[in-house]
DNA sequence: GGTTACCGGGGTTACGGT
């Protein structure tokens, strides 16, 4: 007969916490905890991406023994030769194990200061004798060590705990072996077949549909599977269902998205699969706020035909035999450019290819429509495109930048026009008025010829201008923390046009920003305004993105609040461009500020480079007449961005979105000594 | 100072959406 344990042995030694208390959130994540438990499962060491290896021990104690699911994992990251090798039923004493919430589950993880002691189950004496002799040798140096109180508690715990839920020795060994077998289950959606289970990396392409007990997702990895539903791209044909306004203009033009109905926004073709998720995954989708645009890994996704027996679907169910809650939906980090997941990277690359092809196709449709429908004089109004292929833009800008670098050391003749260089110096000049003129196409809607205003066209121009204003008002803010998009995960990520509101961008904190980019706006007026514009000079806001600004300034962006040298260089270059505009604007700002203080009206319109009536910076912060800065020739391109639009009649870029015409500067360089 | 990682096996609930 085993002697009854005495009272002292019965009590968890002070400084230790029970498994039950941990699972009941009695301690916060991040705390370092001391825990004593019995080994019920072990996943053998596997290499990690770093130099450490990783193994996992699952523990339970007598606070949680009546429920087989109440056990706690300790994740051990250490060099391979310091890995513990516990056996079934061994007692583990942990010091300073960090509590974490990983994969939506509470678990322990080793910390710098964690010590792990293992007592061999078959050597633990019956209480009240302490288990000191059962201690396995330590593979590494420790800072804490168990005393007699702990040794005695180990004996008590091992002999008194309910072991009926422990696996058999054979089962334990089997699980341990299986834990190292990693079969590649990853599949691209193009390769999924009826009846298989697969891991996939996909993007949510539609808002999750939540019925309470289940959530259905539409996902794509931008591969095609013949067994998926075919989403037809209606494209330009979609406006046949819309009505023209009394003047024969359509208010909107669908362009790469479906109008009004807000239904399918792509990808089109057989690239998307429906996935039905059940608990516990639904909870994660809600709590993480997964939504359109989120990239996720779905593990062990069951693939089979849906009820209509025509299209393959995915099913994400709970893991039946998992020893604890197992979450098979994991959000992917598209901002991790350091060590991007290769599957994610490939999927993002395919998405970019898909978007490029779609854009080219849509542009092609426009070009064909315009070539067929427009009179020649209309073409002249467009400002004679220098190139109508958006793809060439970057090449041209790179060339300009390269030339800028080449000419860096060359001497510059200091005349008004020669201090700013521009690409395409043999191309005709457009006026601001030309550039601002909307472009129409004649087309056939339900048998009627209507004149249709395009929301924007991808066209390049050259113009003689001078700068009359700029945004943001402080030069320090001309450089911003680099905004990350999902395409940044690709090593050949390209410059993107400045958008007013962009989706999928991760907000970057100024304090933690590693990379900076130029991002500012210039308001331009004609250097030699046409006669009819003399009374009310037309102006145009152009966005200057990072590449254009590098070309313009021959400077790289940095944190200008810290980098005074770069700020001063920026100020000098811009002086060559706009003379004393900054000083005058600053004086004007001061004057206005004083006036506003007096009037208690400090609200200012937001910065904006569009030509839209509602959104453009209408207020002239500086009177153009006061400006005596230098005229120069520059390249301007027109492009479109999507902006939120609550009015469904105006939402021509899909649900809640409208196309907004924008202008950007490119291929222009300030020469300097 | 505090990341790294998350086995196997064989699938019901629900009935919508393109």
Structure notes:
Pfam families: POT1, POT1PC. GO terms for molecular function: G-rich strand telomeric DNA binding; telomerase inhibitor activity. The chain has 673 residues and is of the alpha+beta class. It has helices at residues 7-10, 19-23, 148-160, 169-178, 281-288, 342-373, 376-381, 390-406, 432-436, 546-553, 564-578, 581-599, and strands spanning 32-47, 53-60, 72-78, 91-102, 105-109, 115-119, 197-204, 209-210, 214-220, 272-278, 295-305, 312-316, 329-331, 420-422, 440-445, 448-453, 459-471, 479-481, 516-518, 520-526, 539-544, 632-644, 657-666, 668-670. The protein has a 5-stranded mixed barrel. Strands 7-9-10-12-11 form a 5-stranded mixed beta barrel. Strands 21-20-17-22-23 form a 5-stranded antiparallel β-sheet. The protein is elongated, with a radius of gyration of 33 Å. 33% of the residues are buried. It binds one DNA strand of 18 nucleotides through residues 43-44, 46, 48-54, 56, 73, 75, 77, 98, 102-103, 105, 107, 109, 111-112, 174-183, 197, 209, 211, 213-214, 216, 218, 229-231, 263-264, 272, 274, 276, 278-279, 299-300, 302, 304, 306-308, 311, 315, 317, 319-322, 326-327, 330.
């Amino acid at each position: 007969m085993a002697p009854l344990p005495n009272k002292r042995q019965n009590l968890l030694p002070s400084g230790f916490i029970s498994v039950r208390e941990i699972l009941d959130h009695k301690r916060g994540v991040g705390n370092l905890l001391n825990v004593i438990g019995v080994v019920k499962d072990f996943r053998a060491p596997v290499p990690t991406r770093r130099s450490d290896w990783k193994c996992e021990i699952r523990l339970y104690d007598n606070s949680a023994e009546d429920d087989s699911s109440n056990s706690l994992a300790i994740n051990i990251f250490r060099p391979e030769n310091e890995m513990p090798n516990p056996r079934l039923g061994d007692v583990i004493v942990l010091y300073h194990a960090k509590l974490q919430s990983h994969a939506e589950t509470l678990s322990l993880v080793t910390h710098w200061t964690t010590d792990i002691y293992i007592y061999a189950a078959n050597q633990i004496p019956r209480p009240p004798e302490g288990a000191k002799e059962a201690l396995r040798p330590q593979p590494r140096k420790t800072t804490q060590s168990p005393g007699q109180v702990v040794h005695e508690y180990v004996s008590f715990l091992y002999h008194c705990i309910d072991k009926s839920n422990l696996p058999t020795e054979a089962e334990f060994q089997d699980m341990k072996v299986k834990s190292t077998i990693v079969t590649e289950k990853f599949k691209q959606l193009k390769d999924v077949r009826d009846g298989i289970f697969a891991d996939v990396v996909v993007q949510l392409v539609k808002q999750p549909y939540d019925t309470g007990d289940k959530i259905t997702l539409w996902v794509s990895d931008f591969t095609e599977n013949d067994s998926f539903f075919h989403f037809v791209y209606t494209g330009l044909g979609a406006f046949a269902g819309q009505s023209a306004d009394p003047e024969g203009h359509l208010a909107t033009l669908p362009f790469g998205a479906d109008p009004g109905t807000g239904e399918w926004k792509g990808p089109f073709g057989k690239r998307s699969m429906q996935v039905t998720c059940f608990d516990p995954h639904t909870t994660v989708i809600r709590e993480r706020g997964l939504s359109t645009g989120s990239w996720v890994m779905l593990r062990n996704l069951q693939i089979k035909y849906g009820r209509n027996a025509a299209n393959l679907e995915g099913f994400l169910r709970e893991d039946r035999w998992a020893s604890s809650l197992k979450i098979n939906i994991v959000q992917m980090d598209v901002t991790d450019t350091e060590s991007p997941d290769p599957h994610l990277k490939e999927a993002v690359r395919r998405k970019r290819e898909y978007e490029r092809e779609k854009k080219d196709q849509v542009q092609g449709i426009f070009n064909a429509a315009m070539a067929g429908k427009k009179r020649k004089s209309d073409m002249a109004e467009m400002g004679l495109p220098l190139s109508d292929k958006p793809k060439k833009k970057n090449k041209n800008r790179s060339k300009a930048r390269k030339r800028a670098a080449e000419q860096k050391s060359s001497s510059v003749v200091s005349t008004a026009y020669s201090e700013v260089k521009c690409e395409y110096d043999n191309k005709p000049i457009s006026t601001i008025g030309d550039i601002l003129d909307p472009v129409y196409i004649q087309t056939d809607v339900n048998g009627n010829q209507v004149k249709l205003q395009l929301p924007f066209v991808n066209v390049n121009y050259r113009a003689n201008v001078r700068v009359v204003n700029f945004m943001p008002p402080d030069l320090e803010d001309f450089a911003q923390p680099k905004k990350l998009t999902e395409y940044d995960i690709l090593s050949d990520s390209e410059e993107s046009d400045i958008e007013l509101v962009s989706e999928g961008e991760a907000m970057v904190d100024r304090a933690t920003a590693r990379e900076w980019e130029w991002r500012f706006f210039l308001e331009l007026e004609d250097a030699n305004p046409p006669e009819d514009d003399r009374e009310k000079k037309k102006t145009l806001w152009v966005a200057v993105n990072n590449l254009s600004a590098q070309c313009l300034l021959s400077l790289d962006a940095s944190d200008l609040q810290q980098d005074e040298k770069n700020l001063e260089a920026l100020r000098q270059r811009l002086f060559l461009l706009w003379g004393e505009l900054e000083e005058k604007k600053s004086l004007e700002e001061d004057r206005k500020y004083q006036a506003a203080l007096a009037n208690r009206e400090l609200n200012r319109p937001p910065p904006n480079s569009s030509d839209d009536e509602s959104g453009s910076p209408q207020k002239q912060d500086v009177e153009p007449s006061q400006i005596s800065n230098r005229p120069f020739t520059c390249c301007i391109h027109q492009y479109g961005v999507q902006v939120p639009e609550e009015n469904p009649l105006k939402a021509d870029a899909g649900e809640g979105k409208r196309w907004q015409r924008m202008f950007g500067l490119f291929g222009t360089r300030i020469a300097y000594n």
